[in-house]
Amino acid sequence: MHAAEGQRRHSRKMARHFVLNTGATIPSVGLGTWQADPGVIGDAIYTSVKAGYRHIDCAQAYRNEKEVGFALKKVIDEGVAKREDLFITSKLWCTNHAPEDVPVALEGTLNDLQTDYVDLYLIHWPLRMKKGAGFSAENVIPSDIPATWAAMERLFDAGKARAIGVSNFSSKKLADLLAVARVPPAVDQVECHPVWQQGKLRAFCEANGIHLSAYSPLGSPGSTMVKAGAVLEHPVVVAAAEKLGKTPAQVVLRWGVQKGHSVLPKSTNEERIKANIDVYDWSIPDDLFAKFSEIEQASSTTTAASASDVQKLETLAAVRDNVLTFPAGDCVICSLFSPSRLSSPTSRRSLFWGSMAGSFALNTGASIPAIGLGTWHAQPGVVGDAIYAAVKVVLFFQGWHRFFTPFCLLFQVGLALTKLFQDGVVKREDLFITSKLWYCNNAPEYVPEAIQTTLDDLQLEYLDLYLIHGPIRLKKGTAPLSENSLPCDIPATWAAMEKLHEAGKARAIGVSNFSCRKLESLLAVTRVPPAVNQVACHPGWQQAKLRDLCKSTGVHLSVAEPQRTPAQVALRWGLQMGQSVLPKSTDVARIKENLDVFDWCIPEELMAEMLEIEQVKLLRAEFGVHPVDGYKSLEDL
Ligand code: NAP
């Protein structure tokens, strides 16, 4: 090894910052925020700043900047860190490339983040999409990077962005930009880890004074879009981790810092957040470090490389009849729908029990399909496929559909729905779409904005059913923990729900996770009674008392999470008990399996045996237990 290189590496041993071409410093480890649910990101930010992080990597497209903003305010108000000690990055989304849209987009981000400036503002992709459109091939329009960059430069001049840069730019695109830039880009944020080391781009950046910042530094193991395990399970990484007594994640992050670029690991887990920044007071020795340059290179992001290239996106557009593209934060997901994946199930015999029709009547007069597709825990990268497939499959034999759409992933669901409508697979009026008011919005003043955000994400005018997620209220932007509980005024929230119903935005309104006591007190004050109470219910937790109350008050009992094994028995049991069931799956085979509950039945003697099953409540929602509000005990829930 060259002596100067050895010295440089040694001096990087403690590199907590790198210097940008603006003279400012960028912390070498930042917290990624992509695919961090709004409900947990606030706590992750707070934990990370307490643990020593000073760099937070955000983007408008991550749809959680508001929650990041709440957490940053808390961090600053409590004196954990001063604003000037933090380095906040955000990104201009592809639909806002028009020069006149650039300042408006940043203003929105600044409002959400509750700050007057960002430390770094990046053009997220060298791609432009139609305004307000989804991230798919057909929405690509020619970009004019020089014009967009000039607008970015004005933000830099105005001090609203203390540094400006780009993301997902190849060396060719960077060279084109440098040729016209008055203010050269300070940063190029790209995928970078030991399995995709960006040798050529790194050399270009070093030669031109541009700092390389590494996204997906761990290989994005939680994302469905990447080859799982490619980075953290790589033998070179694992061997180094074993020798150094560190975790593979720490080794790849330290490798990045030692290479001379900042790293942006995402985690919402307290332990991993802390571990990921523990990369400063040790280093990878030269012999082990050298092994990393022998690693075979492969970009782990399935389509990131092609997504950064307009031509390839245009090629995708040419086959778009077979392709559904939708964003999962940063990358284009392309899902080919082969006829075999969507083949219709064999013809069904008529339903066995008369009372077990394909739908149940609500007290609004509308009907609710007996089976819906749950989307909780579905990855953004697969939920669109699942919805498209589920609707197609169901359409063949029932002609009705129902979705349960919680607070995350709605954007992807919306894109899949729009595609279904555009393709003529189904009409809006044939779908039954349910969504929920999250605990953080459980106050009358938040209700209209919350449903509007959901409708915007889903690209819909109305919901068929809107539920109060539970009789619980949490502080804005916080995770479901009992210390985040606030007293909640259910009658006031319900009055706001009734207004949505009257305005036609929610064709039916209801509640979820309401016990008998909570439901009774609500029924005592409602003008519009709840149409539905959606609760956990399965053979092991049959909710007999609640079922009786619902029956006698005309509230339909809807069941979430009937995930007992064998799944079909649990589903069928639910149907035979006269309630609708909402199994979640994003796996096409399982979606079909879960629908296969109509042409058979559980015999009466077995049903009778199931009634004997000892009752156990599975949902351990400790955060819902609160001395003043919420539930007094878990059993009460
Ligand atoms: P990443 O940081 O490489 O990986 C994140 C995943 O790793 C999460 O599933 C996380 O789960 C898990 N994880 C975190 N720490 C871990 C550890 N110590 N051991 C094992 N697993 C661990 O991937 P990324 O989110 O794709 O990239 C990081 C950030 O870069 C993003 O969040 C975003 O801010 C930015 N980004 C930018 C672009 C762009 O186009 N500019 C594209 C992609 C990403 P837990 O949360 O459960 O810990």
Automatic annotation (TrEMBL):
Sorted UniProt keywords? Acetylation, NADP, Oxidoreductase
Which domain of life, per UniProt?
Eukaryota
Where does the NADP-dependent oxidoreductase domain lie?
40-295, 414-561
State any single GO MF term.
Answer: oxidoreductase activity
Question: Which Pfam families does the UniProt record give?
Answer: Aldo_ket_red
Q: List the PANTHER family.
A: ALDO/KETO REDUCTASE
Give the UniProt family note: Belongs to the aldo/keto reductase family.
- Protein name listed in UniProt: NADP-dependent oxidoreductase domain-containing protein
Organism per entry: Eleusine coracana subsp. coracana
